[in-house]
Design goal:
It comes from Gelatiniphilus marinus. The chain is mostly beta strands. It contains no helices and nine strands. It has a single domain (2-118), classed as ApaG domain (Immunoglobulin-like, Sandwich), CATH 2.60.40. The protein starts with a strand and ends in a 6-residue tail after the last strand.
Length: 128
């Protein structure tokens, strides 16, 4: 598990390898990740959007951005957390993801970014 705190918001990420399959004559490696967003600040905040960079060992980079996470824009009061699970496909058995969430502080009405720490994706059969 990797963790990072930015502006009182703690991001924790756990990953797992889901399996591999062929699509359009290419092998794909499926990875799942579970993110917990914990509000350790004294203010209520809302997650509005996300930005991801997905890297694989073959130097392929993909960026993904959009509103909320899995269709939600969670509001977190102090001490509350939100956990969700998602996934990605890579064309190699190794990779990594990183990014940030765009959030708003309801007390100050200021928008801010919360870093998503870099986490590794690796198929267990490919690890030395």
């Amino acid at each position: 598990m990797v963790q990072q705190v930015t502006s009182g918001i703690k991001i924790s990420v756990e990953t797992n390898f889901e399996g591999s399959f062929y699509k359009n004559y290419k092998i794909n490696y499926a990875f799942g990740y579970t993110v917990t967003i914990e509000n350790q600040s004294k203010d209520s905040v809302q997650l509005n959007s996300r930005y991801w960079v997905i890297l694989d060992a073959l130097n392929h980079t993909e960026t993904v951005s959009g509103e909320g996470v899995i269709g939600l824009k969670p509001v977190l009061k102090p001490g509350e957390s939100h956990t969700y699970t998602s996934g990605c496909l890579l064309t190699s058995p190794f990779g990594a993801m990183l990014g940030h969430y765009n959030m708003v502080n309801f007390t100050t009405t200021k928008k801010f970014q919360v870093a998503i720490p870099t986490f590794r994706l690796s198929a267990p059969f490919a690890i030395n």
